[in-house]
Amino acid sequence: MREVRFGYTDRKILDSISFQAEQGKLLCVLGRNGVGKTTLFQLLLGSLKGYEGRIEVNGKSLEEYEEKELAKQIAYIPQSYHPAYNYTVQDMVLMGVTPSLGMFEMPGKKHVQRVEQALESVGLLHLRHQNFCHISSGEKQMALIARAIAQNTRILVMDEPSSNLDFGNGVRVMKLCQKLAHQGYLIIQSTHNPQHVFSYADEVLVLEDGKISVQGEPAKCLDEEILSRIYQIPTRLFYCSEFQQKICVAL
């Protein structure tokens, strides 16, 4: 992404945004509510038009991709999902193979096998015949990640994937994201929890006033002054030698 600007007639959202993200990395985007994190993701996913600058996915301009071709490059995992019909977990994840199908092609055995592999990778294979609406919030989030894996892309964009989860499920989702990054995926996700950044992220990108104010390795570039300014609350950082990472505490 190079010198990207986007806004509406009455308000500028993003101004001169430039960054590059690499495969095998977990990149967390920090910033207070309304700063433009979701807008940034919508631009990456090709959902918003009318921006200035250049956005590239795997070395190719975003504007050169047809919608279906872009879906083979990048997948989106929302905060939550509420289907209109009572799909099973397997059928929900099977929707991820749609970009691989021809116009009148139905999913076949190889696609079902891909779905089962995706479910197994997130630990949900035993729930494949359960109603998606009847599983827990943490399991739903894992299923949405499995759907993105079944989409067979290597770039996953996640909008606050643990925001609606309890502590245990939030940790499980973040550990899975870290594992996928180590397997070669590029994970770009927003979060409001600085501790997630210190514990799991390879890089952090801080948005302030429509611009990137900080980017780099979390332990090196995030400090108390920055976090206090972002969230407008006094923040202290302590180094935990046992876990070799910073611990963030709001005062």
- Our count of helices gives 9
Query: Structural class of the secondary elements?
Result: alpha/beta
Helical percentage? 25-40%
Tell me the series of helices and strands, N- to C-terminal: EEEHEEEHEHHHEHEHEEHHEE
Per CATH, the superfamily of the largest domain is P-loop containing nucleotide triphosphate hydrolases
Description:
The chain folds into 2 domains: 146 residues, P-loop containing nucleotide triphosphate hydrolases (Rossmann fold, 3-Layer(aba) Sandwich); 79 residues, no CATH class. It is built from 9 helices and 13 strands. Helix 4 crosses helix 5 and helix 5 packs parallel to helix 6. It has 251 residues and is α/β, with parallel strands linked by helices. The strands form 4 sheets. Strands 7-8-9-3-10-11 form a 6-stranded mixed β-sheet, with helices on both faces. Strands 2-1-4 form a 3-stranded antiparallel β-sheet, with no helix packed on it.
